Amino acid sequence: MATLLSETKSQTGLVISWEALPDDFQLEDEPVENTGQPLLAGALRESLEISGFIQPQMLIAANFGLCATLNEQFVAKAPDWVYVPSVKEILPERKSYTPNLEGDVPAVVMEFLSDKDGGEYSVKRIYPPGKWFFYEHILQVAIYIIFEPDGGLLEYYQLENGRYELQQPDENGRHWIDSVGLFLGTWRGEKEGRSGYWLRWWDQTGNLLPWAVEKIEQERQRAEQERGEKERLIAYLRSQGIDPDNLPIN
Prior knowledge:
Layout: E1 4-9, E2 15-19, H1 36-50, E3 59-61, E4 65-70, E5 73-77, E6 81-84, E7 96-97, E8 108-112, H2 131-139, E9 143-148, E10 153-160, E11 163-167, E12 175-177, E13 182-191, E14 194-202, H3 212-239
């Protein structure tokens, strides 16, 4: 793998390069701010996986380091959730990701707000840069989502002419993400002992992508419905003097 893909000077005057990390480089751990964040991130991935959405070339990760080099200084930010449509090499245990060098620029990054200020709105451009500035000007991620779980506020920003612009949801309170091919919106309910607001996916026809427990319940209800239909058919045949056990089998 090449150690340096390219070097460019951004409109902000920063020299940006995409360099591979040395094999022995240790990324700093960015602690999870509360126990709800892993649940939110895991739920987003779970429904995608159950619905057969995830492909091997995709990178979907939580609290995962995105890397760049600014004016020869290394920077890594770990969004709470990230989606990369395609990577060049499929690695079983990827520790970090450098856009452009290793594959596509992330199409979506998400941050989940907590009581602690995590710099999600920071436009600080001097080293180390703020998250907002990093996603908007350095990585140039097309969609930046900030979610406040306690109140269910979803802020959806789209990169337009180099700047993030707040987008309004549709009549159902959802946002269509073209790169994912799904709608994203909020949903209130309970999962894994957490009750409150969640981010959920809907397909193009408005069907909610289920979690595992919901999928199991759907299968159970379908089996009960089929059993009920069979019992009604048997009862009808017997009312007509027909023994269903003696019907010819083609």
